[in-house]
Amino acid sequence: MRAELVVKYKHGDVVEALRRRYGPHNPHALRASELWAEAHKSAETSISYAASTAKGLIVMARSTDRAGEIYVESSTGRLRGCSEQVWEAIREEGKRLEPQPMKPRLHSLELVDLPGDVVATASVGIERI
Q1: All residues at 6 or more sequence positions from 8 whose CB lies less than 8 Å from its CB, including other chains
Q2: What is the C-alpha to C-alpha distance for residues 90 and 3, in angstroms, rounded to an integer?
Q3: How far apart are CA 71 and CA 80, in angstroms?
Q4: What 3-state class would DSSP assign to 5?
Q5: What is the predicted pLDDT for the residue at 128?
Q6: Sign of CA pseudo-dihedral 25, 28, 32, 37
């Protein structure tokens, strides 16, 4: 199971905010990911950052000009708490980015079970159809 967060921002880069908290890109974290294992041919080229912690958290991200997609996996089974930690890291480290703070907004959050079934969805704001 994993969490998928979409973060929007006007300045900065979500990958840089994650790098400040979790350290440099770690290819070993990418290879330990279940998401990458199931779809590595497409994910390998699009994921620009991966890191892991001693507590079993894997964080992966890719970003565009104004948005970032963050994938969170946890071997401890505490996905909600891990997702909150990652969101807090983005907010806190984004404030410190130069020359302007990032000011991120959480656009959406999905909990996804393997093999890709969406279990729960949350979003912020108004969606136009």
Answers
A1: 66, 67, 104, 105, 107
A2: 15
A3: 12
A4: strand
A5: 47
A6: positive
pTM score > 0.70 for this model?
Answer: yes
Could you list the beta-strand ranges (E) of the chain: 2-8, 49-52, 57-63, 67-74, 105-113, 117-123
Q: Which residue has the higher pLDDT, 28 or 117?
A: 28
Q: Are 37 and 104 in contact (CB under 8 A)?
A: no
Compute the residue count for the chain. Answer: 129
Q: Are 4 and 106 in contact (CB under 8 A)?
A: no
What is the Cβ-side half-sphere exposure of residue 114, based on CA atoms within 13 angstroms? Answer: 9
Supply the Cα-derived Rg of the chain in whole angstroms: 14
Q: What was the pLDDT predicted at 42?
A: 55
**What confidence tens digit (pLDDT) does each residue in 19-34 have?**
999 999 998 998 888 8
Q: Is the pLDDT of residue 129 over 50?
A: no
